[in-house]
Write a structure and sequence with these properties.
GO terms for molecular function: sequence-specific DNA binding. The protein has about 100 residues and is α+β, with helices and mostly antiparallel strands. It has helices at about 10-15, 20-30, 45-60, and strands spanning about 75, 85, 95. About 30% of the residues lie in helices and about 10% in strands. It has a three-stranded antiparallel β-sheet with strand order 1-3-2, with no helix packed on it. It is globular and about 40 Å long. About 0% of the residues are buried.
C-alpha cells in the first residue's frame, strides 16, 4: 500500500527508496524462522520468534519511559487462510486483527 496513489496509504519515504518490484523480490526470499523446527499443528508458529526479536530491539533502541496506548486495527485480507477473522460491522470485514 506504500506505493498506492491514495493520500491515506501512500508513503513517499518508502516509495522513493525502493520500488514495488524490489520489495516483492526481498519479501520472496526473506525467511524468519527455521522450517525444520516448526510445530506443524501451529499455523502461526513463524510469528513468535520474530516478535520476540523485535520486542528486544525496540526496548534496546527505544526505551519507553511512560505508558502508552495502542489501538487495534484490521489488516484487510481476501485470500484463503483459516486464521482470517470476520467482523460484519467493521468497514474491513475480513482480515487479520492486530
Amino acid at each position: 500500500m506504500f506505493w498506492e496513489n491514495a493520500e491515506d496509504s501512500h508513503n513517499q519515504l518508502v516509495s522513493l527508496e525502493m520500488t514495488v518490484n524490489r520489495f516483492e523480490e526481498i519479501l520472496s526470499i526473506l525467511h524468519l524462522a527455521d522450517n525444520t523446527k516448526l510445530d506443524l499443528n501451529d499455523k502461526m508458529a513463524k510469528v513468535p520468534p520474530i516478535l520476540s526479536v523485535l520486542n528486544e530491539r525496540y526496548l534496546q533502541f527505544w526505551p519507553v519511559s511512560q505508558n502508552g496506548n495502542v489501538d487495534e486495527s484490521m489488516i484487510p485480507y481476501h485470500g484463503r487462510y483459516s486464521a482470517i477473522l470476520s467482523i460484519r460491522e467493521n468497514p474491513i470485514r475480513y482480515g487479520h486483527k492486530m
